[in-house]
Design brief:
The chain is 31% helix and 25% strand. A hairpin with a 2-residue loop joins strand 8 and strand 9. Helix 9 crosses helix 15. The radius of gyration is 36 Å and the shape is elongated.
Length: 676
């Protein structure tokens, strides 16, 4: 069959020709159209000789020529009616009477120059059919959309897609104006139907059986949602035949060539990374998890949430234990043999990297993560094997406090036997109640077990140091050295938390580990005195943020989540870590040879204003109003220059996010964070 396509370089023409070529070349075998096709293409650049030959030989004509926006209205009739007349005259010249399909417009009903030209062409075709007996197929198309349509011309869809994809404004005069839209693939399907002498006819005209009615406002909102999906990761409705599916495909065709790729938020720590890829409203989400060699992740179970794991690179094992039972089930997985592992409800589970390289796992979850209903409960599958039995004991001084509790819980969850020494007890832990000022009791506790480490989280903060100077001198300044001296001739490591406040901030540059503290206030002075700097023990200099079990505590995060409106200061600069990051760093420090003074920072800094914005995003659900103020200039920024400790401090957003994840996983401990 020889097919002539006029208007070959137009929107419909390009889509039709590409489909016919695929059929001809046997690339598309889904149609019942014969593949013995010879395709003649005609457009402005076609020579008269070729045009004559095409008219002489063709068996079928798709006349897709159309003039839409001429400089002069007279060109409508010349382009739309005039070309068709030339086509019919040339066919008659050679005595050829092929079937003809014609792309007219719903505007043929209207009395305007464009509509009149299309109506004149329609009538000419009907006369041709009556005269020759050849069948004609006249389509009155409404608003067509799809790839390759020219933006800022005659298609509102193409214009909106192009402008929004390229960060250009769009204009909407009436959001409630409704249009009938027809997708190009549906158009091509109907054109192929009439090629096979079928199709959907209503009266004198053939129609596209599928169309969509949408308002301008809804159209714009949908396209903006596509653009924003790179951030939200939400996949549009992809139901077969849906308008959203067709529109999204159209939108993607207008992306700038330098913006096909977009970054994802990788939640990274020393264990590897976890990255969400796509989310859906009713089919859950897909993520990729990368685990470093020897790392175990998971250790939790779900009531209703379920998952599928697929290891695509590396090797590992997925372990399960049914709640209330002791037996552990193992499934060994590898990128060498792709196998999906279902994660049933009611089974605590983990996944461990058994290889020497990173293990990459694709994870599907049946629901998107809901911070108000995480349905995730920590419970180890089995005893952690990586901890030497002789090094499983740790003592946390001040384990009831903000940092102390997180550190104690983190070590416990990683297989250590944790003893807490504080003024109050903490549920779920072996606790000794007492005061660190009772040196006799303290030493008794220190020497009670062969601790792998003593983690000192005791200290007085700024105001208390001014009010209780003797206590500040003892707890901040003397106590750390008492601990170091007690274990001087043992294998027990003391890890002490110091502060960036040992520096005045007058330098206006970052402070490294070797610089002399120069604080003028009592808090800074006493913390500087208390720093342990020897070849066995470790002092982490940093500043911390994190959740607190007790709502009356006035830590920054605790204070923030109780507010409706706050002011964040742009001149107050911070370079600390979350308490969860601190706990992870301590765990790694216990298990490796690191000592002296170490600046636990990521070598970046953030203003308190930007930090509060992160709090709002991950804890306040964006509901807390944050005003911007300069505040008093303060820049006690630390920089890490040591290269002997393989621990990566995450970005500030990742640290705030890990705080939120910690609260969700320990919901019963932080009831006042219930909205997280």
């Amino acid at each position: 069959m020889k097919i002539l396509v006029t208007g070959a370089n137009g929107f419909v023409g390009k889509n039709l020709i590409s489909t016919l070529e695929n059929i001809r070349d046997l690339k598309d075998r889904t149609r019942d159209v014969p593949s013995d096709l010879e395709i003649f293409t005609c457009d402005i650049g076609t020579s008269e000789a070729d045009f004559e030959r095409y008219c002489k030989e063709c068996d079928f004509v798709f006349n897709l020529v159309g003039v839409h926006r001429p400089k002069d209205d007279s060109e409508f009739m010349k382009g739309n009616f005039g070309f068709l007349s030339k086509l019919l005259d040339t066919l008659e010249k050679y005595g050829n009477t092929p079937r003809i399909a014609f792309s007219s417009s719903i505007q043929a009903k209207l009395d305007n120059p464009y509509g009149e030209s299309k109506r004149a062409a329609e009538n000419a075709l009907f006369e041709y059919s009556e005269k020759t007996g050849a069948k004609v197929y006249v389509f009155r198309f409404s608003n067509l959309f799809g790839k390759w349509s020219r933006p800022n011309y005659n298609s509102v869809v193409a214009t909106f897609c192009y402008n929004i994809a390229n960060d250009l404004p769009i204009e909407i005069r009436d959001r409630n104006h409704e249009m009938e839209l027809i997708y190009i693939d549906d158009v091509i399907n109907e054109l192929l139907e009439v090629l096979m002498d079928r199709g959907h006819k209503q009266g004198d005209f053939y129609t596209v059986s599928v169309s969509h009615f949408v308002t301008l406002g809804k159209l714009a909102d949908l396209i903006y949602s596509f653009k924003n999906s790179r951030g939200s990761l939400m996949v549009p409705n992809m139901t077969d035949g849906s308008f959203s599916k067709k529109l999204y495909s159209t939108y993607l065709s207008y992306l700038p060539t330098d913006k096909f790729a977009y970054p994802l938020n990788m939640h990274k720590d020393e264990r590897g990374s976890f990255t969400e890829i796509v989310k859906t409203t009713d089919r859950g989400q897909v993520s990729v998890n990368i685990s470093k060699p020897g790392i175990t992740k998971g250790q939790h179970w779900h009531h209703t949430k379920n998952e599928k794991f697929l290891v695509v690179s590396g090797k590992g094992v997925v372990r399960f234990r049914k709640i209330g039972e002791k037996k552990v089930y193992e499934y060994f997985v590898s990128g060498e043999k792709l196998e999906v592992v279902d994660i049933p409800t009611g089974y605590t589970h983990n996944i461990e990297n058994l290889g020497d390289t990173d293990m990459v796992t694709i994870m599907w979850c049946n629901e998107c993560f809901n911070p108000s209903k995480p349905d995730t409960y920590f419970l180890p599958v089995e005893e952690i094997k990586n901890v030497d039995s002789t090094k499983k004991e740790v003592l946390v001084l001040g384990g009831a406090g903000m940092a102390g509790y997180v550190i104690a819980a983190y070590f416990k969850e990683h297989g250590y036997n944790v003893t807490i020494f504080d003024k109050t007890t903490v549920d779920g832990f072996n606790c000794v109640v007492g005061s660190a000022k009772d040196t006799e009791l303290l030493k008794k506790i220190l020497l009670a077990k062969p601790y792998a480490a003593v983690l000192n989280c005791i200290g007085l903060l700024n105001r208390a140091c001014d009010e209780y100077r003797c206590d500040a001198a003892y707890l901040n300044g003397y106590l750390p050295h008492l601990l170091a001296e007690t274990f001087e001739n043992s294998k027990t490591k003391v890890i002490h938390i110091s502060s960036d406040c040992v520096f005045s901030g007058n330098k206006n540059e970052a402070y490294n580990e070797s610089e002399q503290p120069d604080a003028a206030d009592n808090y800074g002075k006493t913390k500087a005195v208390g720093e342990i700097d020897n070849n066995k023990d470790l002092t982490f200099r940093t500043s911390i943020i994190g959740p607190d079990r007790l709502p009356q505590k006035n830590g920054l995060l605790n204070w923030f989540v109780q507010q409706d409106e706050v002011t964040g200061f742009t001149k107050t600069i911070w370079s600390g870590v979350s308490t969860i990051t601190l706990a992870r760093a301590m765990l790694k420090a216990v298990e490796c040879d690191i000592s002296g003074i170490y600046h636990l920072v990521n070598n970046e800094y953030i203003s308190k204003y930007e930090l509060l914005k992160l709090f709002n995003k991950h804890f306040g659900n964006g509901k807390i109003k944050i005003n911007c103020g300069e505040g008093i200039e303060s820049k006690k920024v630390l920089v890490n220059t040591r290269k002997d400790f393989d621990f990566a401090v995450p970005s500030y957003e990742n640290m705030v996010e890990e705080c939120a994840e910690w609260v969700r996983a320990h919901r019963e401990v932080y009831p006042d964070y219930y909205e997280v």
